[in-house]
Design goal:
This protein is α+β, with helices and mostly antiparallel strands. It has a domain of about 110 residues: Alpha-Beta Complex (Peptide Deformylase), CATH 3.90.45.10. The chain is about 30% helix and about 30% strand. It is built from five helices and eight strands, in the order ααβββββββααβα. Strands 1-2-3-6-7 form a five-stranded antiparallel sheet. β4 and β5 form a beta hairpin. The model has no long low-confidence stretch (mean pLDDT about 95). The structure holds zinc ion (ZN). Zinc ion binds next to α3.
C-alpha cells in the first residue's frame, strides 16, 4: 500500500484551512483510504491523522489507541468536561510542539471504519487526540490554540530520535513484546 503525501503548513494552507464536508457513505474505497492513512500515520510516528492532512476534504480522521487503528467518520462532540494544558505536535507542522489547553474528557459520536455507529467517552490523551483531529476537519490547527510562549521546535536530530523510538515500540508490539510508555505526540 502506498504512503500518502501529508499536507504541510503553510505550503498547503488552503487544504488545511478548509472546512471539510460530511462523508455520505462508508464505501470500500473509503476503507482502502483509511488503510493507507494508517500506514502513513505509523510511518510518520503519529497518533492521529485527519483526512484533510492527506488532501481529502471529508469529515473523518483515524487514530491509534490500545494498539488498534480505527476511524471516526462524521464525528460530533456531544459533551466536554475539565481542562488541562498539555504538549501537542502535528504531522502537518513537523517538529513544532507547544502546550494547548483542552478539555480532559470528550464524549463523541460518529461512525467507525466498519460503518457502525459508535459513541466514545474519551478521557485525557484520547480526548486530546479526538479534539485535535476534529479541529482539523474545521480548518483549525493546534498553533491557533497553543500558548505562544510554549511553542518550540525539535531539532532534526530530536525528531529522528522520536520517530525511531515510535518505530521501535511498533516493532515490539508486532513481536508481542511488552512496551512501556507510548512516546508519540503528533497528530
Ligand atoms: Zn494535527
Amino acid at each position: 500500500m502506498p504512503l500518502l503525501k501529508i499536507a504541510i503548513y503553510p505550503e498547503d494552507e488552503k487544504m488545511l484551512r478548509d472546512r471539510c464536508r460530511p462523508v455520505v457513505k462508508v464505501t470500500p474505497r473509503l476503507q482502502r483510504l483509511i488503510d493507507d492513512m494508517a500506514e502513513t500515520m505509523q510511518d510518520a510516528a503519529g497518533v492521529g491523522l485527519a483526512a484533510p492532512q492527506v488532501f481529502v476534504n471529508q469529515r473523518f480522521f483515524i487514530y491509534e489507541w490500545n494498539d488498534r487503528v480505527d476511524a471516526l467518520i462524521n464525528p460530533e462532540v456531544l459533551e466536554v468536561e475539565g481542562e488541562a494544558s498539555e504538549e501537542e505536535g502535528c504531522l502537518s507542522l513537523p517538529r513544532l510542539q507547544g502546550k494547548v489547553v483542552r478539555p480532559t474528557r470528550a464524549l463523541v459520536s460518529g461512525v467507525n471504519r466498519r460503518g457502525r455507529r459508535v459513541r466514545i467517552d474519551a478521557e485525557d490523551y484520547l480526548a486530546r487526540i479526538f479534539l485535535h483531529e476534529i479541529d482539523h476537519l474545521n480548518g483549525v490547527l493546534f498553533i491557533d490554540k497553543a500558548d505562544r510562549t510554549s511553542l518550540h521546535w525539535l531539532t532534526e536530530e530530536e525528531e529522528k530520535e522520536r520517530v525511531a523510538r515510535v518505530h521501535e515500540v511498533l516493532e515490539k508490539r508486532r513481536r508481542g513484546e511488552p512496551v512501556d510508555v507510548d512516546p508519540r505526540g503528533a497528530g
